Amino acid sequence: MSDGTRSRGTKVARLIDEYDLSGTGARLEAAWTGTSGERTSLRDLADEFNERLLEVSLREANVSPRDFEVTGTYEALREGSSSERTRARRRLEREGIDVEALSSDFVTHQAIHTYLRKDREARLPDEDEDVVERKIETLEKLQGRVAVVTETTIESLASAEELDHPEYDILVDVQAICSKCGSNHSVGELFRQGGCQCEVLSD
Q1: Angle at 192 between CA 187 and CA 195, to 5 degrees
Q2: For residues 50 and 157, what is the distance between their CA atoms, to the nearest angstrom?
């Protein structure tokens, strides 16, 4: 999706327009979804976005971002001690930057998430996985939990001499039996093939 003006209801979208950050929306989406490599967290994306706002503000004030230690200045404003914030603010103000306005434009990771989901309709790769595979994974995890609980129970009963010994192999295999043809299948197999594929003969 482009950085067009189809929807400009979120703070991030507004700032992209106001600061003329062409292409930023696409970069944020690619970094969040991992299409350009390893996924970047929303918090890191928010920090990167805010540093871009600071860079633009410096350039508009005819100050080279390279000479201003953008990352250090941003960190001082956001997370520095009282004295560090004061020094950073004063230095920016000496360059003619409205620090109050700039700080109010800084966004949170929630704002980045809202922008990506609402304005760009972005989704994470795991949200696009086949629904069948996700259901199978859920059931397999449940079966694994049943097996673990059963093994623990056996060990406990054997220790209490309520069971002859703890050396039992636990198999948890949920089967689905077709009431029409009588065939049985593991639920994973059944879901993946879309049913037992039997042909029901009429009388």
Answers
A1: 70
A2: 59
End-to-end CA distance of the chain: 56
Q: Is 161 exposed, middle or buried (0-12, 13-18, 19+ CB in 10 A)?
A: exposed
Task: Report the amino acid identity of residue 58.
Answer: L
Q: Which two tokens stand for residue 48?
A: 């990167």
- What is this structure's pTM? 0.60
Q: Where are the domains of the chain?
A: 11-127, 131-193
Tens digit of pLDDT for each residue in 78-115? 988 999 999 999 999 999 999 999 999 999 999 999 99
**Collapsed DSSP state (helix, strand, coil) of residue 177:** strand
Find all residues with CB under 8 Å of 55, minimum gap 6, and list them: 65, 70
